[in-house]
Amino acid sequence: MIGLFLIAACPSLSREGAAQQPATQPEQIARLIRQLDADRFEDRERAARELLEIGMPAVEPLRAARAHPSAEVRWRAKSLVNWLTVGVRRRELADFAAQPDDRLDLEHGMWLVARILNPAVKKADLTRQLDRLADRVAKKLDKGEPAASADPEKAVAAIRQVLFVEEGFTGNTKERYHPDNSSLERVLQAKQGLPILLSHVTIAVARRLDVPLVGVPLSGTYIVKYDASLAPVGFRKDDLFIDPFERGRLLRAGDEIEQAFPGQDAASETPLDNRQTLERMLRNLTSSLDGRQESERLEQAEEFLQILSAYAPSAEPE
To answer: What's the pLDDT band for 8 if we cut at 50, 70, 90?
Structure first.
């Protein structure tokens, strides 16, 4: 591992912070890598510290340096790559997971999950796509009526029209257990995914419009409910359900929802909190990665799941 001196010298490194570093010439990185084998210990430490400060642009050259003829360079390059990738990721996940649930941003968490499959995915791109979907829903409502005060039937109809008719979001029935079905990025691209991902795309769009949709975890699937207790004053107080995996089919409280999911009380199922939702998403991802020769990604998904669980609030004493 890199010496404690270097760790103390660079306490605030992060993936986002590294991306904000000024552009660095490849020659400078190459020069610093050569200095990792300098005669003086102080010069080797200084070069390592400067490479850490450069951040992510130095990762690929350092990976190549792990095959350097010098054992000192190989050892330091390996340590620096580990610090800039695994170390940064773990600290970032821990900072996220340590937040109380009411401040745990589910969309941020879904981006972190998506990044396991594509480290280059940008949160801003995902946010922009969800914003655009919400804008289109808003335009479906009569006379620009705010969705938050709209008739629940109209608000749900507008969401279903945009997401499931125009965009064609639906369940991936052919490859249900493919890892892509657990990535927000790839679900937005393919318009297919697992029930929980499709449900939380729907909820994310509704949240932007202050439409009270919540997730309903069921055995083997996951659906969305318009919480009628939060409906605007003057409108009916019956819950409406959307099944995103089945092209957004609409189900009403009573016989419809009971017949669709026999033996499950969807009407009174308690929504998961944000941490529990992410844990369920990660368990789906780990299951889909297992046995696919995706050991590195599987390790990352398991690590994220473990970190989330480690920071979960303790159960209330009986």
So the answer is: very low
- DSSP string covering 232-273, please? PTTS----EEEEGGGTTEEEETTHHHHHHSTT--GGGPPPP-
Q: Is 217 helix (H, G, I), strand (E, B) or coil?
A: strand
How far apart CA 95 and CA 307 sit, in angstroms, is: 10
Residue 168, exposed/middle/buried by CB under 10 A (0-12, 13-18, 19+)?
A: exposed
Residue 221 contacts by C-beta under 8 Å, 6 or more apart in sequence? 195, 243, 245, 261
CA Rg value for the chain: 24
Token pair, residue 60, equals 């690929």
| Spans of all domains in the chain | 4-97, 102-310
For residue 217, what are the β-bridge partners? 222
Instruction: Report whether 126 contacts 188 (CB < 8 A).
Output: yes
Residue type, 222: Y
Token pair of 28 as six digits: 């400078």
Q: Please tell me the distance from the alpha carbon of residue 310 to that of residue 93, in angstroms, as a whole number.
A: 11
Residues 169, 129 contacting (CB under 8 angstroms): no
Q: Which strands make up the sheet holding 221-226, listed edge to edge?
A: 213-218, 221-226, 240-243, 249-252
In this predicted model, what pLDDT tens digit does every residue of 179-199 receive, in sequence order?
999 999 999 999 999 999 999
Q: Which helix (H) or strand (E) holds 250?
A: strand 249-252
Length reported for the chain:
318
- For the question of whether the overall pTM of this predicted structure is more than 0.85, the answer is no
Q: What is the identity of the amino acid at 106?
A: L
